[in-house]
Amino acid sequence: MRKHWQIMNKGNYNKYNMRLLIIGLCFIFGLNSLTYAQKVSSDDLLKQAMEQTNLNKDYDKAIQLAKQGLTVSPDYTDIQLLLGRLYLIKKEYTQGEMMLKKVLEKDPENVDALNYLINGFYAQKKYSDAIRYADVYLTHYPNDEQMQLKKVDFTTLQGDLKSAYDLSDSLSKRYPQNDKIRLINNDLMLLTRQNRVGVGYSVTAFDQNGRRPWDIYNVSYMRSEKNGSIIGRASYADRKTAKGYQFEVEAYPIHGNSYSFINMSYSNSIVFPTFRFSYSYFFPQKNGWEPEAGIRYLNNEEDFVSFVAALGKYFGKYWLSGKVFVTPHDDKVATSFALSGRYYIGESVDDYVTAIAGYGFSPDDRGRNFDIGNRINIQNARVTLGYQRTLWRRNILGLFGSWNNFKYNADNRRNEYDLAISFQHMF
What is the CA radius of gyration of the chain? Predict the structure, then answer.
Protein backbone atom coordinates (compact mmCIF):
# COMPACT_ATOMS: atom_id res chain seq x y z
CA MET A 1 0.00 0.00 0.00
CA ARG A 2 2.79 2.34 0.89
CA LYS A 3 4.51 1.47 -2.35
CA HIS A 4 1.34 2.10 -4.35
CA TRP A 5 0.91 5.50 -2.71
CA GLN A 6 4.48 6.42 -3.61
CA ILE A 7 3.87 5.47 -7.24
CA MET A 8 0.67 7.53 -7.35
CA ASN A 9 2.35 10.50 -5.70
CA LYS A 10 5.18 10.34 -8.18
CA GLY A 11 2.71 10.31 -11.07
CA ASN A 12 0.90 13.37 -9.74
CA TYR A 13 4.20 15.13 -9.31
CA ASN A 14 5.09 14.48 -12.94
CA LYS A 15 1.70 15.74 -14.11
CA TYR A 16 2.15 18.87 -12.00
CA ASN A 17 5.55 19.53 -13.52
CA MET A 18 4.12 18.99 -16.98
CA ARG A 19 1.39 21.56 -16.34
CA LEU A 20 3.95 24.06 -15.11
CA LEU A 21 6.02 23.45 -18.20
CA ILE A 22 3.03 23.99 -20.50
CA ILE A 23 2.01 27.17 -18.67
CA GLY A 24 5.58 28.49 -18.86
CA LEU A 25 5.83 27.77 -22.56
CA CYS A 26 2.48 29.45 -23.19
CA PHE A 27 3.65 32.51 -21.24
CA ILE A 28 6.88 32.72 -23.22
CA PHE A 29 5.08 32.31 -26.54
CA GLY A 30 2.54 34.88 -25.43
CA LEU A 31 5.25 37.42 -24.66
CA ASN A 32 6.88 36.78 -28.01
CA SER A 33 3.54 37.17 -29.75
CA LEU A 34 2.86 40.39 -27.87
CA THR A 35 6.30 41.78 -28.78
CA TYR A 36 5.77 40.81 -32.41
CA ALA A 37 2.34 42.44 -32.40
CA GLN A 38 3.83 45.60 -30.94
CA LYS A 39 6.50 45.69 -33.63
CA VAL A 40 3.99 45.20 -36.40
CA SER A 41 1.76 47.84 -34.86
CA SER A 42 4.55 50.45 -34.61
CA ASP A 43 5.68 49.70 -38.17
CA ASP A 44 2.13 50.12 -39.38
CA LEU A 45 1.79 53.42 -37.53
CA LEU A 46 5.07 54.62 -39.01
CA LYS A 47 3.85 53.74 -42.49
CA GLN A 48 0.58 55.60 -41.95
CA ALA A 49 2.40 58.63 -40.53
CA MET A 50 4.70 58.75 -43.56
CA GLU A 51 1.73 58.58 -45.91
CA GLN A 52 0.08 61.49 -44.10
CA THR A 53 3.37 63.42 -44.30
CA ASN A 54 4.39 62.79 -47.89
CA LEU A 55 1.10 62.21 -49.69
CA ASN A 56 -1.62 64.07 -47.81
CA LYS A 57 0.55 66.77 -46.20
CA ASP A 58 -1.58 66.38 -43.07
CA TYR A 59 1.18 67.05 -40.58
CA ASP A 60 -1.06 67.17 -37.52
CA LYS A 61 -2.42 63.70 -38.29
CA ALA A 62 1.10 62.45 -38.98
CA ILE A 63 2.31 63.76 -35.61
CA GLN A 64 -0.59 62.02 -33.88
CA LEU A 65 0.25 58.70 -35.57
CA ALA A 66 3.97 59.05 -34.83
CA LYS A 67 3.26 59.69 -31.16
CA GLN A 68 1.09 56.55 -31.06
CA GLY A 69 3.95 54.62 -32.59
CA LEU A 70 6.31 55.81 -29.86
CA THR A 71 3.90 54.69 -27.13
CA VAL A 72 4.21 51.19 -28.61
CA SER A 73 7.95 51.37 -29.34
CA PRO A 74 9.44 54.29 -27.36
CA ASP A 75 12.93 53.85 -28.81
CA TYR A 76 11.99 53.42 -32.49
CA THR A 77 14.59 55.59 -34.30
CA ASP A 78 12.70 56.00 -37.58
CA ILE A 79 9.60 57.25 -35.77
CA GLN A 80 11.70 59.65 -33.70
CA LEU A 81 13.30 61.00 -36.86
CA LEU A 82 9.94 61.46 -38.56
CA LEU A 83 8.44 63.15 -35.51
CA GLY A 84 11.43 65.48 -35.21
CA ARG A 85 11.15 66.38 -38.88
CA LEU A 86 7.40 67.01 -38.54
CA TYR A 87 7.94 69.37 -35.62
CA LEU A 88 10.43 71.33 -37.72
CA ILE A 89 7.96 71.52 -40.61
CA LYS A 90 5.35 72.86 -38.18
CA LYS A 91 7.96 75.36 -36.90
CA GLU A 92 7.75 73.81 -33.44
CA TYR A 93 11.52 73.99 -33.32
CA THR A 94 12.13 73.28 -29.63
CA GLN A 95 10.23 69.99 -29.71
CA GLY A 96 11.83 69.02 -33.00
CA GLU A 97 15.33 69.65 -31.67
CA MET A 98 14.63 67.63 -28.51
CA MET A 99 13.43 64.64 -30.52
CA LEU A 100 16.35 64.72 -32.94
CA LYS A 101 18.88 65.09 -30.12
CA LYS A 102 17.43 61.91 -28.58
CA VAL A 103 18.40 60.11 -31.76
CA LEU A 104 21.91 61.56 -31.64
CA GLU A 105 22.35 60.49 -28.01
CA LYS A 106 22.20 56.86 -29.08
CA ASP A 107 23.53 57.31 -32.62
CA PRO A 108 25.85 60.37 -32.86
CA GLU A 109 26.56 59.69 -36.54
CA ASN A 110 22.94 59.58 -37.70
CA VAL A 111 22.94 61.45 -41.03
CA ASP A 112 19.22 62.27 -41.06
CA ALA A 113 19.15 63.61 -37.51
CA LEU A 114 22.16 65.85 -38.16
CA ASN A 115 20.75 67.13 -41.46
CA TYR A 116 17.32 67.87 -39.98
CA LEU A 117 18.88 69.72 -37.04
CA ILE A 118 21.14 71.78 -39.29
CA ASN A 119 18.26 72.70 -41.61
CA GLY A 120 16.12 73.62 -38.60
CA PHE A 121 18.75 75.99 -37.24
CA TYR A 122 19.14 77.50 -40.71
CA ALA A 123 15.39 78.11 -40.93
CA GLN A 124 15.55 79.93 -37.58
CA LYS A 125 18.61 81.93 -38.72
CA LYS A 126 20.58 80.40 -35.85
CA TYR A 127 23.71 80.26 -37.94
CA SER A 128 26.10 79.62 -35.03
CA ASP A 129 24.17 76.46 -34.08
CA ALA A 130 23.98 75.41 -37.73
CA ILE A 131 27.76 75.77 -38.02
CA ARG A 132 28.30 73.84 -34.78
CA TYR A 133 26.29 70.84 -35.99
CA ALA A 134 27.81 71.10 -39.46
CA ASP A 135 31.18 70.65 -37.75
CA VAL A 136 29.82 67.57 -35.95
CA TYR A 137 28.57 66.21 -39.26
CA LEU A 138 31.92 66.83 -40.97
CA THR A 139 33.75 65.12 -38.10
CA HIS A 140 32.00 61.90 -39.10
CA TYR A 141 31.73 62.58 -42.86
CA PRO A 142 34.70 64.83 -43.76
CA ASN A 143 34.37 64.35 -47.53
CA ASP A 144 30.79 65.57 -47.88
CA GLU A 145 31.11 68.51 -50.31
CA GLN A 146 27.50 69.65 -49.92
CA MET A 147 27.82 70.00 -46.15
CA GLN A 148 31.09 71.88 -46.57
CA LEU A 149 29.33 74.31 -48.92
CA LYS A 150 26.51 74.67 -46.40
CA LYS A 151 29.04 75.64 -43.76
CA VAL A 152 30.44 78.29 -46.10
CA ASP A 153 26.91 79.58 -46.66
CA PHE A 154 26.12 79.72 -42.93
CA THR A 155 29.38 81.53 -42.21
CA THR A 156 28.61 84.06 -44.96
CA LEU A 157 25.10 84.66 -43.63
CA GLN A 158 26.56 85.14 -40.17
CA GLY A 159 28.50 88.07 -41.60
CA ASP A 160 31.97 86.59 -41.16
CA LEU A 161 33.05 86.99 -44.77
CA LYS A 162 36.73 86.49 -44.06
CA SER A 163 36.18 83.09 -42.42
CA ALA A 164 33.76 82.14 -45.21
CA TYR A 165 36.39 83.04 -47.80
CA ASP A 166 39.07 81.05 -45.94
CA LEU A 167 36.76 78.02 -46.01
CA SER A 168 35.85 78.38 -49.69
CA ASP A 169 39.48 78.97 -50.63
CA SER A 170 40.56 75.72 -48.95
CA LEU A 171 37.68 73.89 -50.66
CA SER A 172 38.60 75.29 -54.09
CA LYS A 173 42.11 73.88 -53.63
CA ARG A 174 40.75 70.56 -52.38
CA TYR A 175 38.17 70.21 -55.19
CA PRO A 176 39.66 72.12 -58.16
CA GLN A 177 37.19 70.55 -60.62
CA ASN A 178 34.08 71.73 -58.74
CA ASP A 179 32.81 74.78 -60.68
CA LYS A 180 30.26 75.73 -58.01
CA ILE A 181 32.93 75.92 -55.31
CA ARG A 182 35.15 77.95 -57.63
CA LEU A 183 32.39 80.50 -58.35
CA ILE A 184 31.50 80.83 -54.66
CA ASN A 185 35.16 81.31 -53.82
CA ASN A 186 35.54 84.02 -56.47
CA ASP A 187 32.48 85.89 -55.17
CA LEU A 188 33.68 85.70 -51.58
CA MET A 189 37.13 86.85 -52.62
CA LEU A 190 35.55 90.00 -54.06
CA LEU A 191 33.25 90.49 -51.08
CA THR A 192 36.13 90.31 -48.64
CA ARG A 193 37.94 93.05 -50.52
CA GLN A 194 36.37 95.80 -48.45
CA ASN A 195 38.54 98.58 -49.83
CA ARG A 196 38.84 100.08 -53.30
CA VAL A 197 40.98 102.88 -54.62
CA GLY A 198 40.22 104.33 -58.01
CA VAL A 199 41.40 106.85 -60.55
CA GLY A 200 39.50 108.24 -63.50
CA TYR A 201 39.87 110.56 -66.45
CA SER A 202 37.32 111.97 -68.87
CA VAL A 203 37.63 114.35 -71.79
CA THR A 204 34.89 116.26 -73.60
CA ALA A 205 35.51 117.34 -77.19
CA PHE A 206 33.39 119.71 -79.32
CA ASP A 207 32.65 119.94 -83.02
CA GLN A 208 33.22 123.71 -82.97
CA ASN A 209 36.48 124.94 -84.40
CA GLY A 210 38.72 126.60 -81.89
CA ARG A 211 36.87 125.25 -78.84
CA ARG A 212 39.32 123.41 -76.65
CA PRO A 213 38.41 120.11 -74.87
CA TRP A 214 37.48 119.85 -71.21
CA ASP A 215 39.40 117.53 -68.91
CA ILE A 216 38.27 116.04 -65.59
CA TYR A 217 40.45 113.93 -63.29
CA ASN A 218 39.34 112.14 -60.15
CA VAL A 219 40.60 109.90 -57.37
CA SER A 220 38.38 107.90 -55.04
CA TYR A 221 38.35 105.56 -52.09
CA MET A 222 35.51 103.15 -51.26
CA ARG A 223 34.91 101.15 -48.10
CA SER A 224 32.35 98.33 -48.06
CA GLU A 225 30.76 97.07 -44.88
CA LYS A 226 27.91 94.72 -44.00
CA ASN A 227 25.39 97.58 -43.93
CA GLY A 228 26.50 99.35 -47.09
CA SER A 229 29.30 101.22 -48.81
CA ILE A 230 30.75 104.72 -48.58
CA ILE A 231 32.90 106.54 -51.13
CA GLY A 232 35.06 109.63 -50.90
CA ARG A 233 35.99 111.33 -54.19
CA ALA A 234 38.03 114.36 -55.21
CA SER A 235 37.81 115.74 -58.75
CA TYR A 236 39.74 118.36 -60.69
CA ALA A 237 38.27 119.98 -63.81
CA ASP A 238 40.09 122.00 -66.43
CA ARG A 239 37.52 123.64 -68.68
CA LYS A 240 40.16 125.92 -70.22
CA THR A 241 38.40 129.15 -69.23
CA ALA A 242 38.26 128.05 -65.58
CA LYS A 243 39.65 125.35 -63.33
CA GLY A 244 38.76 123.99 -59.91
CA TYR A 245 38.20 121.15 -57.45
CA GLN A 246 35.16 119.30 -56.17
CA PHE A 247 34.96 117.12 -53.05
CA GLU A 248 32.16 114.63 -52.54
CA VAL A 249 30.90 111.84 -50.33
CA GLU A 250 28.70 109.05 -51.68
CA ALA A 251 26.99 106.26 -49.75
CA TYR A 252 24.83 103.20 -50.42
CA PRO A 253 23.25 102.23 -47.07
CA ILE A 254 21.29 98.98 -46.93
CA HIS A 255 17.87 98.85 -45.23
CA GLY A 256 16.83 95.20 -45.00
CA ASN A 257 15.88 94.27 -48.56
CA SER A 258 16.06 97.87 -49.80
CA TYR A 259 18.88 100.35 -50.16
CA SER A 260 19.54 104.05 -50.75
CA PHE A 261 21.86 106.23 -52.79
CA ILE A 262 23.17 109.42 -51.16
CA ASN A 263 25.60 111.92 -52.65
CA MET A 264 26.80 115.29 -51.35
CA SER A 265 29.45 117.48 -52.95
CA TYR A 266 30.98 120.92 -52.59
CA SER A 267 33.11 123.12 -54.83
CA ASN A 268 34.27 126.73 -54.65
CA SER A 269 34.79 126.90 -58.42
CA ILE A 270 32.33 127.64 -61.24
CA VAL A 271 33.45 124.51 -63.09
CA PHE A 272 31.35 122.44 -60.65
CA PRO A 273 28.05 123.05 -58.85
CA THR A 274 28.71 124.91 -55.60
CA PHE A 275 26.65 122.36 -53.71
CA ARG A 276 24.95 119.18 -54.83
CA PHE A 277 22.73 116.76 -52.93
CA SER A 278 21.26 113.58 -54.38
CA TYR A 279 19.08 110.95 -52.78
CA SER A 280 17.26 107.89 -54.16
CA TYR A 281 15.49 105.02 -52.46
CA PHE A 282 15.34 101.65 -54.21
CA PHE A 283 12.67 99.00 -53.61
CA PRO A 284 13.90 95.65 -55.03
CA GLN A 285 11.07 93.17 -55.54
CA LYS A 286 11.21 89.38 -55.50
CA ASN A 287 10.05 89.22 -59.12
CA GLY A 288 13.06 91.23 -60.31
CA TRP A 289 11.41 94.65 -60.56
CA GLU A 290 13.12 97.58 -58.84
CA PRO A 291 11.30 100.93 -58.46
CA GLU A 292 13.27 104.06 -57.54
CA ALA A 293 12.16 107.40 -56.15
CA GLY A 294 14.44 110.31 -55.37
CA ILE A 295 15.37 113.97 -55.41
CA ARG A 296 18.27 116.04 -56.73
CA TYR A 297 19.38 119.49 -55.59
CA LEU A 298 21.94 121.64 -57.41
CA ASN A 299 23.16 125.09 -56.45
CA ASN A 300 25.28 127.24 -58.71
CA GLU A 301 24.09 130.87 -58.49
CA GLU A 302 20.55 129.46 -58.63
CA ASP A 303 18.77 126.61 -56.85
CA PHE A 304 17.47 123.69 -58.89
CA VAL A 305 15.39 120.85 -57.48
CA SER A 306 14.60 117.77 -59.56
CA PHE A 307 12.35 114.84 -58.77
CA VAL A 308 13.35 111.38 -59.93
CA ALA A 309 11.32 108.26 -60.66
CA ALA A 310 12.57 105.07 -62.28
CA LEU A 311 11.61 101.47 -62.82
CA GLY A 312 14.04 98.68 -63.59
CA LYS A 313 13.75 94.95 -64.22
CA TYR A 314 16.14 92.02 -64.30
CA PHE A 315 15.76 89.53 -67.15
CA GLY A 316 18.32 86.87 -66.39
CA LYS A 317 21.67 88.58 -66.95
CA TYR A 318 20.01 91.63 -68.49
CA TRP A 319 18.98 94.78 -66.65
CA LEU A 320 16.64 97.35 -68.23
CA SER A 321 15.66 100.63 -66.63
CA GLY A 322 13.60 103.68 -67.51
CA LYS A 323 14.16 106.94 -65.60
CA VAL A 324 12.56 110.37 -65.65
CA PHE A 325 13.71 113.68 -64.10
CA VAL A 326 11.23 116.51 -63.56
CA THR A 327 12.72 119.95 -62.78
CA PRO A 328 10.44 122.96 -62.19
CA HIS A 329 12.21 126.24 -63.12
CA ASP A 330 11.08 129.76 -64.07
CA ASP A 331 7.41 128.82 -64.35
CA LYS A 332 8.36 125.93 -66.61
CA VAL A 333 8.90 122.25 -66.03
CA ALA A 334 11.92 120.65 -67.67
CA THR A 335 11.71 116.91 -68.23
CA SER A 336 14.48 114.46 -68.95
CA PHE A 337 14.19 110.80 -69.90
CA ALA A 338 16.71 107.97 -69.99
CA LEU A 339 16.50 104.34 -71.01
CA SER A 340 19.42 102.17 -69.98
CA GLY A 341 20.32 98.54 -70.54
CA ARG A 342 23.05 96.42 -69.07
CA TYR A 343 24.27 92.89 -69.74
CA TYR A 344 26.31 91.22 -67.02
CA ILE A 345 29.29 89.20 -68.14
CA GLY A 346 29.96 86.19 -65.95
CA GLU A 347 28.91 86.22 -62.30
CA SER A 348 30.32 89.52 -61.00
CA VAL A 349 28.19 92.68 -60.87
CA ASP A 350 31.32 94.64 -61.84
CA ASP A 351 31.53 92.97 -65.26
CA TYR A 352 29.10 94.31 -67.85
CA VAL A 353 28.42 96.13 -71.10
CA THR A 354 25.93 98.98 -71.04
CA ALA A 355 24.00 101.24 -73.39
CA ILE A 356 22.07 104.39 -72.42
CA ALA A 357 19.85 106.62 -74.53
CA GLY A 358 18.39 109.85 -73.18
CA TYR A 359 16.54 113.02 -74.05
CA GLY A 360 16.61 116.29 -72.13
CA PHE A 361 19.19 117.60 -69.70
CA SER A 362 19.93 115.28 -66.77
CA PRO A 363 21.01 116.68 -63.37
CA ASP A 364 23.05 113.47 -62.96
CA ASP A 365 25.31 114.45 -65.87
CA ARG A 366 28.52 115.06 -63.91
CA GLY A 367 30.31 116.65 -66.84
CA ARG A 368 27.69 119.33 -67.48
CA ASN A 369 25.49 119.88 -64.42
CA PHE A 370 27.60 122.90 -63.45
CA ASP A 371 25.94 124.64 -66.42
CA ILE A 372 22.38 123.54 -65.65
CA GLY A 373 21.03 127.10 -65.78
CA ASN A 374 21.97 127.47 -69.44
CA ARG A 375 21.16 123.93 -70.55
CA ILE A 376 18.06 122.86 -68.67
CA ASN A 377 15.57 123.99 -71.33
CA ILE A 378 17.68 123.12 -74.37
CA GLN A 379 16.73 120.15 -76.52
CA ASN A 380 19.31 117.46 -75.95
CA ALA A 381 19.72 113.89 -77.19
CA ARG A 382 22.46 111.61 -75.92
CA VAL A 383 23.77 108.07 -76.29
CA THR A 384 26.32 106.31 -74.07
CA LEU A 385 28.10 103.00 -74.55
CA GLY A 386 30.26 101.42 -71.88
CA TYR A 387 32.27 98.35 -70.98
CA GLN A 388 33.63 97.35 -67.57
CA ARG A 389 35.63 94.26 -66.72
CA THR A 390 37.46 92.71 -63.77
CA LEU A 391 41.13 92.04 -64.45
CA TRP A 392 43.31 89.66 -62.43
CA ARG A 393 40.49 89.32 -59.86
CA ARG A 394 41.34 92.52 -57.96
CA ASN A 395 41.26 95.22 -60.63
CA ILE A 396 38.38 96.78 -62.55
CA LEU A 397 38.82 98.65 -65.82
CA GLY A 398 36.02 100.73 -67.34
CA LEU A 399 35.72 102.42 -70.76
CA PHE A 400 32.79 104.70 -71.65
CA GLY A 401 31.93 106.89 -74.60
CA SER A 402 29.06 109.37 -75.08
CA TRP A 403 27.59 111.51 -77.81
CA ASN A 404 25.50 114.56 -76.90
CA ASN A 405 23.61 116.75 -79.34
CA PHE A 406 22.34 120.14 -78.16
CA LYS A 407 19.87 122.18 -80.18
CA TYR A 408 20.02 125.82 -79.13
CA ASN A 409 17.71 126.96 -81.95
CA ALA A 410 16.71 125.91 -85.46
CA ASP A 411 20.08 126.93 -86.90
CA ASN A 412 22.36 126.29 -83.96
CA ARG A 413 23.33 122.77 -82.92
CA ARG A 414 26.38 121.48 -81.14
CA ASN A 415 27.80 118.01 -80.72
CA GLU A 416 29.83 117.06 -77.68
CA TYR A 417 31.79 113.82 -77.38
CA ASP A 418 32.86 112.29 -74.07
CA LEU A 419 35.44 109.61 -73.50
CA ALA A 420 36.05 108.28 -69.99
CA ILE A 421 38.35 105.66 -68.51
CA SER A 422 38.40 104.40 -64.93
CA PHE A 423 40.53 101.98 -62.97
CA GLN A 424 39.86 100.50 -59.52
CA HIS A 425 41.95 98.25 -57.32
CA MET A 426 40.36 96.11 -54.60
CA PHE A 427 42.21 95.15 -51.43
Answer: 37
